[in-house]
Each structure stands twice: as C-alpha cells, then as structure tokens.
Amino acid sequence: xxxxxxxxxxxxxxxLWYTSAPHTRxxxxxxxxxxxxxxxxxxxxxxxxxxxxLFILARASLRRLLxxxxxxxxxxxxxxxxxxxxLFIDHPVSSVRFNVAHSGDCIVHAIAQGTEVGVDVEVLRNxxxxxxxxxxxASGEQAWLLAADAQARDTGFFTLWTCxxxxxxxxxxxxSKPLNSFEVSLADGGKPRILSDSExxxxxxxxxxxxxxxxxxxxxxxxVDVASTLVELRDYDSGVLLQRIV
Length: 246
Known about the structure:
By secondary structure, this protein is of the alpha+beta class. The protein contains six helices and twelve strands. 29% of the residues lie in helices and 33% in strands. Helix 2 (37-44) packs antiparallel against helix 3 and helix 5 packs antiparallel against helix 6 (150-171). The radius of gyration is 18 Å and the shape is globular.
C-alpha cells in the first residue's frame, strides 16, 4: 500500500479492499515475514506456487489492513476462529470485524466496525461448468435460472452464488448452512434481497446484500447489517476509491 496511516471507519460504513497477485508491489518475502508460524506452515503445504503466493498475499494484506484499523503491529495480530472456521481478531481487543474472499488472482477484504460482515467474489465464466452447484440452490432460484436466457443465466448464476456465499459468511456459518435453506431474489431490478430463510426467517430484514465489481468480469457481493448504509470499495495498492455503494 502507498501509506501505513491509520484508517477511520465511521459507524454505518463498510470498507472493501481489492488487490490481485499480479499487481502487488511488495516482494513476497516481505509479506511472508509478518505471518505467524501457523500461517507460514500452511503456506508451505500448498502444492502449487500460485496457490501458496495467493494465500501469503491474502493473509499479509489482511494483517496490514487490520493494523491500520486497530493500531497494532501487523505481525502481532492474533486470530482465532469460530466453530465453522470464520476468523476473528483475538489480539488486540477490537470491535473490528472482517471477512476475506478470493477467486482466480483476485482478493477482496471486507472490514466493518462492531458488526459482522461477509463477502464473496467470483471471476465470471461459463456457468455451465458449474451447473451441478445450482442443484443445491433453493427451488425458486433454480426455477429463475432455468427461465433465463444463456447470457443472463451466466451472470445470474454468479450473482446468486456470490450473494449466498456472502450471506452464510456473514452469519459465520460457512457451508455448514445448506444453500437450499434460504432463497435470494433478483426480481427487484436485479437488486438482491433475501426472500426467505427456513432456519432464521425472523432475521431476514437484518441483512443487506450489496453487489460490486472490482474489475471487468469479476463480480462480488457483500452482506452487511442493515445499519450499514455505505460501502466503499478501494484499491489496496493505491488506496484509490473504485466504487461507492449505497
């Protein structure tokens, strides 16, 4: 990043930070140096260099970002995870919440203050290769996809997929929550909303699903608390504002 200055996160605002492996300006060794022992061991276990480098970049950029929100040394930040694998800050004590997503060489960090957040991102491609996944969607989502033409089906599939992933990640459940236990609707002019949740219908109105595009042919969704009224997407390396979502 161009600056290591502190970042203020106003109440009601969520920050998204986008980076990609080919565009990072910091040598990989410098990224690796701020990871803890468990993270370095995990990196060493990757079979392919590309996957290892992406993990190192994702975790190091997360540490550097969280350091700017919490005032901690990036190498001294300690993580724990909930029973479903979602990470949270164990040290220092902080109300900052975060989530991370990646697809291809694209990495997105979501940062919120005092409220959970979930994010997913996908490189757009032929959804026919992933048709089996949609069989796990809610029946209404499957019907909507079947009724769409081929071009709309590709975009619609990845829109639904990122929305569903972002929602379960915000809940801290990951894929332990069945994808057919809740339905996302795109009927409102393509603006996503959670239509039903058989496990938790009482809290449907607690979440907003907000779409973003960090670059061409990449689609993302962030699930935020309804009290969050502004999402800002920025480039991690330059700090440039890429998109403001309200």
